[in-house]
Design goal:
This protein is an all-alpha fold. 71% of the residues lie in helices and 2% in strands.
């Protein structure tokens, strides 16, 4: 019998390991931060009554996260059994960080300001989350095909851009506001999760880091005892319940929501593609369609029970795998968050746990995802990875500029593009580059990877696709529209010209880049191309340098 036909031995993966405990504390801290933030956004920005936030929205969020994490536990268990492995790591799942800010500031806050009604703002948020979920469900059937023909450098580079900017930079800034608390925590996280050093008695690194940071903060007078007493008095049980009436009211005004919901729904399923690719690069190959179906269903169910905050497959699978996470750490986190939401304990946690002791774990995720983007792709594609990162850096930078101007009670339109340019801020260019950053990063990374491989037909195809997407505003546009502004139309023309230049190289019959046999990632990428029926690259001895 051939090796390929040898049956995989039956293996029952352990339900819980010491590594699960480590990853549980790490992911749990991550999700605690995110739920505390979204609760604050709903209560203090949109001014939804605290009773509705803590007794309706958070329990709704808790049930959608519990359902999703049960499903991802099931997928991990089945993958372990199918492949005969005990080292499978479940996909992490929680409230989507970018979406919690977008639904607050782009959908709910403008509705609140226009109607002076927090309930109508909440209804608009529910309708928006429902649309996001529906688009992801559609994406479950087209996403696998997109992933199949998109270079890994584009997917992982885009994910690195998200992780470094939107996941890591704000926590890093918060850390340096209280470095005396945060840096000892970061030390434990890097030594334990990255360097692989175990504490005596194999004590969980994540818990040790949280306890150390909390002890320093409380001992140093960073926390306030009075807030703990107030939080204890506010504890109350809130059970999930159907709120379809609120959703239906929100759907009555669906048209204005489509401009942001369509591109962000596409964002969600393209980000999920990147996360699944990241997990595959770390050794766990999940079925993208199953992941997206769970993702979309979670958003739809959440909107029906009152949560305007869609869930998402989280960035960070490789980090939790490196921490020893197995099939149950994410499920345990989902159960914990559900319990905290239902029993109304989040105000108490906010009063007990210092932020500088919590946020270093988010910086850790940025370190892991950023490094994986280079480790798991051919060396020749490093430039494509960096290019895929750039649009998210632009989007993050534009957000900082906008927030600073808002704090000064003005905006970019009032200040004027000329004044901003004179101050060294190329605002309009940053804005256009960062709009639709996830999709733009994937496209640019893919085009660059195909160019580097000298597969110019594919580079041209992706360039022309970029022109079409820019023309309708899915990338480099403020909204989806068949009437692009002048700069947007010129950007689309630029992509079209890029495609024509690539076709010129096709006419020159330039040979494809040769495989670097000394680079395992390059050999693997070539094998995947061959499996998809793409022409094989010419092999050359490992001693020869990679063509520039």
């Amino acid at each position: 019998m051939s090796a390929a036909a040898t049956p995989i031995p039956s293996v029952t993966p352990p339900l819980w390991t010491r590594g699960d405990l480590n990853a549980f504390f790490g992911l749990g801290i991550n999700m605690l931060v995110n739920v505390l933030v979204l609760a604050g956004l709903a209560a203090f920005v949109v001014q939804i009554p605290a009773d509705d936030v803590y007794h309706t929205i958070l329990p709704a969020l808790g049930i959608e996260l519990l359902i999703g994490n049960i499903f991802y536990f099931y997928l991990a268990k089945k993958l372990a059994e199918r492949e005969g492995r005990t080292d499978v790591t479940a996909m992490p799942y929680g409230p989507s960080v970018p979406h919690m800010f977008i639904v607050t500031f782009v959908v709910m806050l403008p509705t609140f300001l226009a109607t002076k009604s927090a309930v109508k703002a909440w209804e608009a948020g529910l309708a928006w989350a429902f649309i996001i979920g529906a688009i992801i469900l559609v994406g479950a059937f087209v996403g696998p095909t997109i992933r199949r023909f998109t270079p890994r450098a584009a997917l992982l580079g885009t994910l690195a851009g998200i992780s470094i900017t939107f996941i890591s930079m704000r926590p890093a800034a918060q850390m340096w506001e209280a470095a005396w608390i945060a840096l000892p925590v970061l030390t434990l996280i890097i030594v334990g999760f990255v360097a692989g050093v175990r504490l005596p008695g194999n004590f969980p690194i994540g818990l040790a880091a949280l306890l150390l940071g909390s002890a320093i903060a409380w001992a140093g007078g960073f926390m306030e005892t009075a807030k703990v007493g107030d939080a204890v008095e506010a504890i109350a049980v809130g059970l999930p319940s159907l709120n379809v009436d609120l959703l239906l009211h929100g759907l009555d005004g669906i048209s204005p929501l489509l401009a942001t919901a369509i591109p962000l729904g596409i964002y969600n399923f393209t980000e999920a593609m990147s996360n699944v690719e990241s997990a595959a690069a770390a050794g766990d190959s999940y079925n993208l369609r199953h992941v997206l179906l769970a993702d979309g269903t979670g958003a739809v169910i959440g909107s029906m029970v009152g949560s305007p905050f869609p869930p998402a497959v989280y960035v960070g699978h490789p980090g939790w795998k490196a921490a020893g996470g197995g099939i149950s750490y994410s499920l345990a986190t989902g159960v914990l968050i559900f319990a905290l939401c239902v029993f109304g304990l989040f105000p108490l946690l906010a009063a007990i746990l210092p932020v500088p002791a919590i946020v270093p774990v988010l910086l850790y995720i940025g370190l892991i995802i950023g490094s994986q983007a280079f480790r798991a792709v051919p060396r020749a594609h490093y430039a494509a990875v960096v290019l895929a990162i750039v649009p998210n850096v632009a989007a993050w930078g534009t957000g900082l500029v906008d927030s600073a101007l808002t704090a000064a009670k003005t905006n970019a339109g009032v200040v004027g593009n000329a004044a901003l340019n004179n101050a060294g801020v190329v605002y309009e260019g940053l804005l256009k580059l960062g709009e639709g950053a996830v999709l733009a990063g994937m496209l640019l990374g893919a085009i660059a990877a195909f160019m580097i491989d000298r597969r110019f037909v594919w580079a041209a195809g992706y360039s022309f696709l970029g022109a079409a997407l820019a023309l309708v505003g899915l990338i480099h546009g403020a909204k989806v529209s068949l009437q692009p502004d002048a700069l947007q139309a010129k950007i689309a023309l630029g992509y079209a010209f890029m495609g024509l230049v690539c076709l010129a190289f096709v006419a020159l019959k330039v040979p494809q880049r040769e495989i670097d046999l000394s680079d395992p990632a390059d050999v693997e990428a070539a094998s995947e191309l061959a499996a998809r029926g793409a022409p094989a690259k010419t092999q050359r001895p490992a001693a020869e340098p990679v063509p520039a």
